[in-house]
């Protein structure tokens, strides 16, 4: 029996045997292999055939991502990505464009990282037709029951289209240029600003329909309500872009953004709908007496001669009085 300080060294094989190459049998499934001469048990399991394919896919993905190029600015594919948005996302952006949240930035929460032009374009197109159609409808209600032949005014469509698209394109462009000039740290792109302004016009679509109601205080109330709701969202969006600038410049910029947005609503209401609450409009309605006199004058040549003589005599008297 060995003592406490003794050491037991168990060597199963000679060093020469350990240097020899040996064939190790592969055992399929979960069966255990036989014990080798070195006293160790080698167990092998089969791997699924898809394991190699999955590993190849993982290794190949970075290569595919690096090979995929972004479409050029001058290609159709580039603009196609700007309209790649689903209906639910558009509805969510419309609803949140009229709900001011001081603790939430509308652009950072709902527009990034996928700004689109699909929603803003159709909002502008819808607003053009709603203002033009309801404006003509208000004019029809205003002249109903009078001796006046009502006609649809197509110039209102042209005016509304020019005003809306000019506001949607020029104001974001000027604001983006101003922020770039002031070196804003927010990093708002022109496309993001354009998207925000397009969705900010969504509140004016139902308001333009309600403006048909011929109640003066209601029309002004709708102007104030829409201006405050949508304008406040714009102020919250662009506050991070100007807060690091001079206080006067920052407050002045936000004030201009708010007033321009409200001025658009006031202009729509005054041009398309305000005449409906006035007592009359000489440019649109001609009195029946004046119409009758003009018709009788054209049908009677003698009356035309008398009117000409009267006008000639009055002109001569006016010239003589001026000489004296």
From TrEMBL:
Record's keyword annotation contains Ubl conjugation: no
GO molecular function: small GTPase binding
The encoding gene: LOC106176574
Keyword vocabulary terms for this entry: Membrane, Transmembrane, Transmembrane helix
Main location: Golgi
Pfam families: Yip1
Organism this protein belongs to: Lingula anatina (Brachiopod)
Name under which the protein is recorded: Protein YIPF
Compositional bias annotation for Basic and acidic residues: 26-40
Keyword Transmembrane helix applies: yes
Family: Belongs to the YIP1 family.
Superkingdom of the source species: Eukaryota
Residues passing through the membrane, by range: 117-138, 158-181, 193-213, 219-242, 249-273
GO process terms (BP): vesicle-mediated transport
Lipid bilayer topology: Multi-pass membrane protein
Region (Disordered): 26-59
Cellular localisation: Golgi apparatus membrane; Membrane
Domain Yip1 stretches: 98-266
Gene Ontology, cellular component aspect: Golgi membrane
């Amino acid at each position: 029996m060995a003592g406490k300080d003794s050491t037991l060294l168990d060597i199963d094989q000679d060093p020469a045997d350990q240097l020899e190459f040996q064939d190790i049998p592969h055992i399929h499934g979960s069966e255990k292999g036989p014990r080798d001469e070195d006293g160790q048990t080698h167990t092998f399991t089969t791997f699924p055939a898809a394991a190699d394919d999955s590993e190849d896919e993982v290794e190949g993905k970075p290569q595919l991502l690096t090979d995929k190029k972004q479409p050029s600015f001058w290609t159709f594919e580039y603009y196609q990505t700007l309209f790649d948005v689903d209906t639910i996302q558009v509805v969510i952006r419309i609803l949140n464009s009229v709900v001011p949240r001081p603790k939430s930035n509308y652009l950072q929460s709902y527009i990034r990282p996928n700004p689109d032009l699909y929603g803003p374009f159709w909002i502008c197109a819808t607003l053009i037709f709603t203002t033009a159609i309801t404006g003509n409808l208000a004019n029809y209600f205003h002249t109903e029951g009078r001796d006046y032949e009502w006609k649809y005014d197509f110039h209102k469509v042209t005016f509304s289209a020019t005003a809306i698209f000019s506001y949607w394109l020029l104001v974001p462009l000027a604001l983006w240029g101003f922020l770039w000039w002031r070196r804003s740290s927010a990093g708002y792109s022109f496309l993001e600003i354009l998207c925000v302004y397009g969705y900010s016009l969504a509140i004016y679509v139902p308001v333009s329909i309600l403006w048909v109601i011929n109640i003066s205080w209601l029309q002004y109330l709708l102007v104030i309500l829409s201006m405050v709701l949508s304008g406040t969202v714009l102020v919250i969006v662009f506050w991070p872009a100007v807060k690091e600038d001079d206080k006067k410049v920052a407050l002045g910029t936000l004030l201009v953004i708010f007033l321009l947005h409200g001025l658009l609503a006031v202009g729509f209401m005054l041009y398309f709908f305000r005449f409906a609450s006035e007592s009359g409009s000489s440019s649109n309605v001609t009195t029946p007496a004046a119409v009758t006199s003009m018709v009788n004058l054209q049908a009677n040549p003698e009356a035309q001669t008398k009117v000409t003589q009267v006008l000639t005599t009055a002109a001569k008297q006016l010239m003589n009085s001026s000489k004296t």
